[in-house]
């Protein structure tokens, strides 16, 4: 496993098969598809950033890379993807074996280009969309968190504010004399033209012709835009004043009804306003929602409390009356946001469902962040919101306006991507007829991405016949190139190029080579994303049966056994943990929807679809670390046997971190022994898991929930009863 992590440390890529099956039939027999989990803008301290434009192949548009064949005498390079011969331009005239440009260095398989003068003139844009149909206590928590967030905004960033409840209020921050808002009816969908007309955008300049998209370049004056989007340094006082005076939605709610909340209308207005003012800017809509939408487009439930919010059973039986209509509305909103290059971030904080399942398509296609918590006062929400704007170490590295492209050898096609992106519908010879996720294209839009955003790329091997041994030994490499063009957090436009080469094998004797190149962690993550995707789009899909069949076929293909002798079965160490991953995946929140709402399931799958291999594996199979006086911290099995009175256990299930004190440890702690000088060793033992938990929390987004409990304690029972993950892991921490 170490060599695969080393490859990830160089290129940000983990492939399930690092030796690739060479034919279509061989790939089909391998069960786990040829695939890669790629983190496009993973930070590398030693990666060079070149201050000039890349040199591209004139045929397939791939970028010059270490796998290109170079004729230094003729000043020609041959593309490894299409074998096109390309001439070097004049400024490469001095290259030679001893004088290579950085992009030809063998160790620089991942490199970035920063073209001078290609920086965005528009600063970061944040549109806060705030729910006011919440109780006073939640309102106070939310206002406090927003005030802190506004203080962390970059001074030059543009800020806007929309609040909503029964009605939608667009706040004119540029009108400094008195607070001024434009009010829209929550039950009515508002088009962009109606919005601009009612908000007096065309008082100074005439309205553009019908069919023309209004924007900063065509019709709207900068004075009009500055009424609603102001630099944070100019409007911080006005924003804080509005937040201080912000009250719960004043419209009365009958005791037998839910609060009136028009989330869909508010998000639609925010998208239209940003599309008119700052199109193509990478602006972010930050939606803070505290309950289900009950009004207007995007409503997920009626106002009557007698009508329950949809459950998984309702969705399976197609008896959720609002679901499909709401999903269709948010699909249209996602298409609009992707076209504009804008991002939707969702902060959903309520004990009830708020509609994350319906909003999933808009958040995922725009590459937005998502946080789900019980309350706006919960540390999960407050700490996660601070992480978004933190500019010191461990910041998210938020970037925008990304376009991701793939080039690969002619015997490989792309089925699609599972992850936070949207298809740009660039059809071509690389596109497979089989579509998985965002497919039928070789280019994708990533409106928002950060340093941890990871995509799962699914490939198809199209070569049908096994080549003869001579050809196989002379030309046995498949090449991949991933191109990510994006706006860096410094506003510079950059192009990151990752070029890979993997050996392919086919025919008799290839099994041992395939086994040697199998990355079981990456394979487990690919299977988790695939099964989650199939559960969402395929009717009557049985995930347990599908996973079991996949595991059986894998074991029959790569296991060693004698017929009719079960005890003779054995797996190579390269495969030994894979069945264990499948066991935990079958029981995970991605497959088992029992005890989870559709919102929670959608949330878990959204996080899985954007995380890297290491974090995704923790979601599938939680890690358990044991601390004791007898030994240094060591991994422990997820089993009752790990529990001991004189041990501390640290359980990390990604979304929740539990520090579990054995009964003796808990008694000593309550007696205050750790405060006595002669028991410094005990104090250090108590502190060690807390330090490790803090390190995990500081690196992770969303911030996980921390639970500290004792053996036989009431807190453990309470957490198990109300947290689905703890319920799933109860056998490991049974009392």
From TrEMBL:
Major place of residence: membrane
Q: Name one GO cellular component term.
A: endoplasmic reticulum membrane
Q: Which UniProt keywords apply?
A: Cytoplasm, Cytoplasmic vesicle, Endoplasmic reticulum, ER-Golgi transport, Membrane, Metal-binding, Protein transport, Transport, Zinc
- Ranges for domain Zinc finger Sec23/Sec24-type: 54-92
- Superkingdom assignment: Eukaryota
Q: How does it sit in the membrane?
A: Peripheral membrane protein
* Sec23/Sec24 helical domain location: 519-617
Per the database record, which ranges form the Sec23/Sec24 trunk domain? 123-389
Has the keyword Isomerase been applied to this entry? Answer: no
What the record says about family reads:
Belongs to the SEC23/SEC24 family. SEC23 subfamily.
Q: State the function annotated in the UniProt record.
A: Component of the coat protein complex II (COPII) which promotes the formation of transport vesicles from the endoplasmic reticulum (ER). The coat has two main functions, the physical deformation of the endoplasmic reticulum membrane into vesicles and the selection of cargo molecules.
Q: What PANTHER family does the database record attribute to this sequence? A: PROTEIN TRANSPORT PROTEIN SEC23, PROTEIN TRANSPORT PROTEIN SEC23 C
Q: What is this protein called?
A: Protein transport protein SEC23
Print the organism lineage. Answer: Eukaryota, Viridiplantae, Streptophyta, Embryophyta, Tracheophyta
